[in-house]
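[Q] Does anyone have a clean structure-token version of this?
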Amino acid sequence: MSDLAFFERDDSLYISCEDLFKIYKIADLEVVALRGLDLKVRRGELMAIVGASGSGKSTLLNILAGLDQPSAGRAYVGGRDLLTMSAGEMVEYRRRSVGFVWQQTGRNLIPYLDALQNVEIPMILAGKAKSFATKRGKELLDAVGLGHRLHHKPNQLSGGEQQRVSIAVALANDPPLLLADEPTGELDSVGAHAVFDLFGELNRQYGVTIIVVTHDPSIAARVDRVVAIRDGRTSTEIFRRVKQDGNRAVVVHDEFVLVDAAGRLQIPREFLEELAIHGRARIALKDRHVEVLPESTREEAIL
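[A] Here you go.
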């Protein structure tokens, strides 16, 4: 079944990426940033993407934002095919369908405008009336806890406050998707926690789908799901759920290894090292589970 058929059948699915590749050519070298990545995101989900530097997580975010195009594979957002959209359609998509928050607050805000004016600008560029832009701008700045700082310029705000204004700017045109690339990378732990808490509040208040790329190890406690990317592919997922333990609710994190459309999965490196598996392994189907075993001796393999 095609991804588009999935959207027609299940309107809770908002993002679907399958066998996604991205290859950058630098001089005479080809750098493969994504290597057959699969990802599905439900409408209204709050999730995080984690991974080491160079794993491909920012590349994926840029593709979903319409800032870059994949080299191969399929990528649908809200039923739109990101590989076949025209340049004009892509501009409209970036303007109305997705909000983006950069790590560097200087890329999100215009320094000589105050907080309210920064939030108004995307709406005015989209053709909204000034009165509408002002009303919604105040509403959004209230939502991010800065209703008392409407007329402060970025240099009069703390780093955390600047990032909260940046989130309000990203939500100005009421996009169904909000993407944030290391939004707490320049903040201290207090400011980082405040921003992550804000994403949760906005997700509940506006129903916006939010994807955050981060290195913060505490993120699993603050989002619905964490997807880890390794070597350009999704490798593991962690789901947060609440279960009852007697009279109290306990938060539990369930971790899964992902199996892509081609049947591939990534075994955690520490498991491979523990079993001394290098290059090749044996697998066996045993009582409704699969065993992954080290390669045997040459003589055993021949037998």
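[Q] Thanks! Anything notable?
[A] The longest strand covers residues 13-26.
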